[in-house]
Amino acid sequence: xxxxxxxxxxxxxxxxxxxxxxxxxxxxxxxxxxxxxxxxxxxxxxxxxxxxxxxxxxxxxxxxxxxxxxxxxxxxxxxxxxxxxxxxxxxxxxxxxxxxxxxxxxxx
Amino acid sequence: xxxxxxxxxxxxxxxxxxxxxxxxxxxxxxxxxxxxxxxxxxxxxxxxxxxxxxxxxxxxxxxxxxxxxxxxxxxxxxxxxxxxxxxxxxxxxxxxxxxxxxxxxxxxxxxxxxxxxxxxxxxxxxxxxxxxxxxxxxxxxxxxxxxxx
Lengths: 108, 149
Known about the structure:
The complex is a heterodimer.
Chain A: E1 2-3, E2 12-28, H1 31-43, E3 45-46, H2 48-72, E4 76-88, E5 91-105
Chain B: H1 2-34, E1 40-41, E2 54-67, H2 70-82, H3 87-107, E3 113-123, E4 135-147
Parallel strand pairs in B: 1-3
Antiparallel strand pairs in B: 2-4, 3-4
Helix pairs in contact in B: 1-2, 1-3
């Protein structure tokens, strides 16, 4: 599945449009690993375990969006946007949304 | 007793915080120099593909979670009283943004340009606790375009 965050897939034309598809996930941190991050908070810098959490959440949200698009018969999603919000301390939601389309090669 | 504990924490985190920050900035600058030619990061939607054949289009993302330290919090709470720029936190956000954009570029191997780059932020901690150190998750994403040679 092709994903872009602009209004088209460059080099291809849009044959059919299916509307909005989206995927979201909320991830919370393991309480034991959170203690380590709490310590890192005092010292500062990048929190690697939280970053992995965010990467997982993003992959999951995009996968759910692709699954929805596939069910509709699309082969690409354009105008993909991410939105994030904090649910509770240490948990964030990643929401990915876009327009599912069917694209074809431009016949010269 | 409590006051002595807090004071030692502030002094210790001042030193550890500035060491970590310097190291991080050095690392960021090194990687930015290595990637100086490609891919170009563009925040606009146009200005690509004029008369060139496109080989691959891909959505690339870079994520990072960054937090301040106890000393920064202390310095910011003082500055809050008088108003003005919180330069202690500006460096934290700057590092986070540059790190996220660098990771996005490193993932887009071989691409010539990344168009329509967006940056999303979310704060991960609870503000209702006094003295809670802010943690920020940053996602940078864009469309990586590779031209046909």
